[in-house]
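Fig. S4 source data, part A: sequence.
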Amino acid sequence: MASKANSTYLTMKKCKFEAPQNLPIQEILNDFGIKIEYDDEYKIWKYTDGHKKSLNDTPIYQREDKADLSWRRSIINSILQDIPIPDLYYRIVNGIIYVYELVDGGHRVRTVGMFVLDKFSLPKNYKVTIEGKVYDCSSRYFSECHEKVQQKILRSNWTIQKFTSDTWTASKMFKLINDGNETSAQEERQAIHTELARVIRELARGLEDSNNQHGIFKNELVDFKRGNMDWDDALAKCALFESKQECKSIVKNELDSFYVNSDYFKEVSFKESFISNLDD
């Protein structure tokens, strides 16, 4: 009989991979909803966002993007210097909205997108050599860089690993790819697809729609860190206590079982009263 620990290991039965693909960054940005358009007013071609996306870069198990400017600049520099970038991992979902879910590589894709959209510039005294010629890109935004520099970025290839799996397996893949960095119990609960899990995610952080986030969480609370999912954890415990006040525990196994109870909302209709208590 397999041990409990072994049962959590990833297998090729749980993850089915396709052959790796090398795609130019420009094509990846297209999937990300960033495309080039002609500006009639200024008579120039420029990149704009807000287009239809086939790539979901914020699946529910992902950590929030906390990359700083120095790190983002280092990604752009790595592309310009031909320094290999780790593979991107796409989970194939073929959903109504998205075709792919970006399991790993979201920070990198968002960073290039931000640079192409002129959200940040390269550092001072920055020069790059392309095909033997030196280009001065000091403090320049993407639109201010020489066309050779722009094309160097857009035509560089990144390797894409595409696979199919369930959401739980994708969250485990995320953990594995990220150098084995431990995911908290609440981060693993984030990957659960039940109505209860969705309500807690939306009230705590408004992932699907920022308007769903409850006002109490709009600003940082003392000793509560959004990135650590402290808000979600506290909400889940409150929900468990309100629905099962006779329970002996509101942590660990009891909370895990509560999260995966797909019949919860059929048994207890507490959503409105729960939100009302938050309002109070």
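Fig. S4 source data, part B ends here. The radius of gyration is 22 Å.
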